[in-house]
Amino acid sequence: MIIRSQNKDRSMLARLWLRLGAFVGKTLLWLLGLGLLGWVLATAWFAWQHRGPVSVKEQIPPGEAAMTQGIIQTAVRIVDQHREGTRYLRDAHAKAHGCVKAEVSVLADLDPALRQGVFAEPGKTWQATMRLSNGNAYPQFDSIRDARGMAIKLLDVPGKQLMADQQARTEQDFVMFSHPNFFVSDVAEYAQNIGAQADGKKVLAFFPKLDPRSWQVRHLFIALATLAPAPASPTQTTYFSVSPYKFGAANAKFRVAPDPQSCPDYVLPKQNQDLPNFLRSALNQQLSTDRVDACFVLQIQRQNPQAFMPIEDTSIEWKESDAPYETVAKVRIPAQDFDTPAQNLACDNQSFNPWFGLEAHRPIGGINRLRKAVYEAVSDYRHSRNAP
Questions:
Q1: 204: domain CATH number?
Q2: Per the domain annotation, does 170 fall within a domain?
Q3: Tell me: the pLDDT tens digits for 218-267?
Q4: Is residue 371 part of a domain?
Q5: Does residue 83 sit within a domain?
Q6: Are residues 120 and 258 located together in one domain of the fold?
Q7: 101 with 132: CB under 8 angstroms?
Q8: Bridge partners, 326 (sequence order)
Q9: Are 8 and 149 in the same domain?
Q10: Using an 8 Å Cβ cutoff, are 76 and 195 in contact?
Q11: Are residues 237 and 104 in the same domain?
Q12: Closest to 254 in 3D by CA, of 315, 295, 219, 303
């Protein structure tokens, strides 16, 4: 009797576990189905909301000027927070791997439609200065996940400058970083995000309120993708303008991509990535020790207004399937010595600004309008504090 009772209890327990397992399995399947349905609906909604045609003109929202002044104050606060002793650093891209001399050569057979601004003369070679950097506002180990930056300054560029108080300049600047889109859409979102970041909030910067409608989950994923592992060298990364510019009468984005086939074959010796400045060491290894040039192509992506290629939303990547990139120039960094105390100080004091340049390449869109004010204010503040 005792044995039968025990067997009966075990049988009931087994049936109970089987029923519980079946219930959990069905629940998980339902949840999976609901999740898949939610993903499909969200994808469909996103595609519906993000479709062409789009405007080819800038659309300035009310209150942008006031938000810009608030962002300037926050950017100056970040500069104060991240200074090194008596040196005041940039509010972004504070750590340079080096400033190097470069040559930008317009294609000799450039399509007439692409002969705009500094690319108007086929075969023309511009002398340039290039700054390569990490993206963070604080100088950190190169091995830490981060964006990487490239800024190119063409020298001795004739013509009227965009900024009325900068007419003595003869420059055209191109400012880029290593991801095709930005983790904020516009000035309003940037104001909220940078304020939270300055207060030490990271992930929470994308969840400003308890209201789920304010959550910026897609932008959080863009930010996480932007913080990529370090490349083997700054010369082995593609850099994007992110925001749009005029290109003659057209609107366009641009990128600079490695072009190793235009330079001598080269294999970079393995670098010790545990060192804090191994990207500078890699650049030094190639250009100064091994005396090997580095090559890139400079490419333009013209806006197709019939597709979803907006001017005012920098979180949207312009798809190459909607408008391909077109090469307009070759960029060469010749072998050189660049890593001396005097050169590094000059690099630290150098200002790069997308508004240093010609009308043919005028920055457009909200983030670029913001840059005009913030770059100038932060640069003036840094230089005044760093003056002897």
A1: 2.40.180.10
A2: yes
A3: 999 999 999 999 999 999 999 999 999 999 999 999 999 999 999 999 99
A4: no
A5: no
A6: yes
A7: no
A8: 300
A9: no
A10: no
A11: yes
A12: 303
> Is 21 a domain residue?
yes
Closest alpha carbon to 173 in 76, 122, 121, 245: 245
Alpha helices in the chain (DSSP H): 2-49, 64-81, 187-198, 217-226, 278-284, 341-349, 366-386
Token output for 245: 């510019």
Res. 135 pLDDT band, cuts 50 70 90: confident
- Taking alpha carbons only, the member of 296, 368, 298, 353 closest to residue 171 is 353
Q: How many CB atoms sit inside 10 A of residue 32's CB?
A: 10
- Residue 280 contacts by C-beta under 8 Å, 6 or more apart in sequence? 97, 98, 142, 339
Domains in the chain, number: 2
Range of the domain at 25: 1-49
Tokens at residue 179, please?
């991801």
- The C-alpha atoms of residue 83 and residue 90 are separated, in whole angstroms, by 9
Q: Name the residue with tokens 């001598």.
A: 264
Q: Are 178 and 370 contacting, i.e. CB atoms less than 8 angstroms apart?
A: no
Residues in CB range of 179: below 8 A, 6 or more apart: 147, 222, 225, 226, 228, 240, 242
Residues 139 and 248 in one domain: yes
Q: Which amino acid is at 369?
A: R
Q: What is the pTM of this model?
A: 0.85
